[in-house]
Amino acid sequence: MYLWDVHALARRFRENRVNEWDKFRYYLLIIILGSLIQGLAPPDLQYAPFRAIQESMAVAVISIVGAWCCYLANYKGDNRDFIGRILCMGLPITIRLLVYGLLFFLCLDAAMKGIPALSFSFQTYGFLQSISVVAMTSLTYIWLYYKMRLASGADR
User: Which domain holds residue 103?
Assistant: First the structure.
């Protein structure tokens, strides 16, 4: 199981070496990871309901467009196993982006504490959080698109 090396996973899909049990394990981890992330997210609706609605709408639009682009990339290749590919490759991509995002926010937090001029209000920090969620969603689908092209053979 590849939790970091998306390129190797895409090659395994291209070579038809990912079986249904492997796909199930990826799907199970996606459910667990999604549940954990959702449980850790602060309830933002009481502080900034309009921003939370905007963020949700942006993520929904990006996800729909991103999934469609990934589908087209798969279609232009061998047009096989789209769901298996997007789920399985989405897991290590999400893990990597979460790690990078966490490191970014830890550095940002350290910079804010070390340099008073960088101190943000709660509202500004919430806005940065919303921007990061939209950016992470966009990066996830961009990365998935290129790996889908590799896995399906559309990049040949």
Answer: 6-42+49-152
The set of long-range contacts for 81-84, using a CB threshold of 8 Å and a minimum separation of 24, is 81/13, 81/18, 82/148, 84/13, 84/18, 84/23
What total of structural domains would you count in the chain? 1
Q: Which residues contact 62 (CB under 8 A, 6 or more apart)?
A: 134, 137, 138, 141
Torsion of CA 147, 148, 152, 153, to 10 degrees: -50
CB 112 within 8 A of CB 118: yes
In a domain, residue 79? The reply is yes
Task: Write out the chain's pLDDT in tens, 156 residues.
Answer: 888 999 999 999 999 999 888 898 888 888 787 767 655 665 555 556 677 778 878 888 898 899 999 999 999 999 989 999 998 999 999 999 999 988 988 887 777 777 666 566 656 667 777 888 889 999 999 999 999 999 999 987
In a domain, 1, yes or no: no
